[in-house]
Amino acid sequence: MEFSALPDLASRAFGGGVVHSSDEFFAAADHLLLPDPPGHAPKTFDHRGQVYDGWETRRRRTPGHDVAVVRLGAPGIVHGIDIDTAFFTGNYPPFASVEAVELPGHPGPDELAAADWVEILPKSPLKGDSHNLYPVADRRRFTHVRLTIFPDGGVARLRVHGEVVPDPELLPKVFDVAAAEYGATVVDCSDMFYGHPQRMLMPGLARDMGDGWETSRRRDDANDWVLVRLAAPAVLRFADLDTSHFKGNAPGWAALTGIDAGERTFELLPRTALRPDTPHRFRLAKAPEVTHVRLDIYPDGGMARLRLLGRADRRFLQKRLGR
Questions:
Q1: Where in this chain does the record put each Allantoicase domain (predicted)?
Q2: Domains along the chain with CATH numbers
Q3: Residue 301 dihedral angles phi and psi, to the nearest 5°
């Protein structure tokens, strides 16, 4: 489904966490939020049985169900849910539901238990060893979700795909407006043969060469590029172009162009030489507020991270939050 291309708001990569689970006898609920796809090693046992890369509860012998409460790493509007039961075949839950809530601050288990939860996915059937994809129609902003499985069993991953909507009151005056955790997203690119450019916008340092954007080798006279919609219209000051891990395949040069709401373009960084496996920082040319930035790399290659530091339009952020 289309929503699966949106960021996973619950991902551990954004700082998501499990704040409560009713049971995790066979496998910890924290696995639900790991950004990597689940793996499996058959006939690998510990003192509690087969090892699973997911959340697995014990077999219920009394009425009831199991729950896991998740703090979204990036609060926002949920467009769809993926309840991934990969490798759970004879031990997956036959049904699941998801509720959501928006709470300020850092609520604990007691506050969350007393909250007014909204059902965003009614009790729905699950298939084993499958991605179970369900669209969500509610367009309110949420900070937490609660996964309920009926009656018990194992789930490998919970993906909560949607739009990031940060609270502007918690953001500094100058911040990375190209950060996925604040709502920036890639809207177009020339090539993503080896890696999706959205990875450049993720938090933290790239773990390896696979944790970035990399294009195929060009055999023509053109160059590769990516277009980023900023988290908010902003006046940009600095850019970080990080080629870490890209040693024999870093771009030779790069340029940055800003685009405003009227589709006017502004040169922010002229074509500039890059070094392999190097975090670069550049001061950008003075320009009006822009909504999008195009990164051109010459002629091709890989980029680990893109950061664009600037002063964002607070009115835009307040409007997105509905204030």
A1: 15-164, 183-311
A2: 2-164 (2.60.120.260), 170-319 (2.60.120.260)
A3: 125, -155
